[in-house]
Design brief:
- Strand 7 and strand 8 form a beta hairpin.
- The strands form two sheets. Strands 6-7-8-10-9 form a five-stranded mixed beta barrel. The protein has a four-stranded antiparallel β-sheet with strand order 1-2-4-3, with helices on one face.
- By secondary structure, the chain is an alpha+beta fold.
- The longest helix has 18 residues.
- It is about 20% helix and about 40% strand.
- The chain is built from four helices and ten strands; from the N terminus they run H-E-E-H-E-E-H-E-H-E-E-E-E-E.
Length: about 200
């Protein structure tokens, strides 16, 4: 979530005594395994691939690793700046979202770096209702006016905050499609990724 939010590689390290273990995620344009390799003299061990990795480190090496990792990433991004982008698979109207479509999407699981979950975009979307979920998330009912009929769908927006300044309308909405399974039933649900 940190790498996605800030569009920078992120590594979280937890220590048990003087030994730390960490896992990281990267962004397009920054090879995380290559970055860890550039810092290998500060690590006890590491592994992974371009977009994710893990490491083990002694506490006494943490500051040296921090400097080396940041220096390497700064060099890479200076040469080739990493620009946030979303690979949208297609435009869709809410009234085109059918159970068969969500079932078809699920057949392509598991999703990951080499098999990304499809992202869709819809236009002219209004918020009918929104309620906080915990301290960071929102559950919404949305309707789109761009199709042949106005259609409402349940939605979740993770890490959206719970303030009163949430938009009441979206010109464009980018989302994933999933089943919301609860008490032996399932309903279509969109997971909001971005909007304008």
């Amino acid at each position: 979530r940190l790498s996605k939010k800030h569009h920078k590689p992120a590594i979280l390290i937890t220590f048990d005594g003087d030994t730390g273990k960490g896992s990281g995620r990267s962004v397009p344009g920054v090879d995380l395994y290559e970055a860890l390799s550039a810092c290998s003299d500060t690590l006890r061990g590491y592994g992974g691939h371009a977009m994710a990795g893990g490491l083990e480190i002694k506490q006494e090496k943490i500051y040296a690793f921090h400097r080396a990792f940041n220096d390497h990433v700064a060099k890479i991004t200076a040469e080739k700046p990493s620009v946030p982008h979303l690979d949208i698979h297609g435009r869709i109207h809410f009234d085109e979202i059918r159970p068969a479509l969500i079932d078809e999407i699920e057949r392509f699981q598991p999703f990951g770096n080499h098999n990304p979950e499809p992202l869709f975009i819809a236009s002219d979307v209004s918020v009918l209702s929104t309620v906080p979920v915990g301290e960071k998330h929102r559950r919404l009912v949305l309707t789109s006016h761009s199709g042949e009929t106005d259609t409402s769908l349940m939605a979740m927006h993770f890490h959206a905050g719970t303030g009163t300044d949430y938009p009441g309308r979206f010109k464009h909405l980018v989302f994933r499609l999933q089943w919301n399974r609860w008490n032996n039933s399932k309903t279509p649900q969109i997971i909001i990724e971005d909007f304008i």
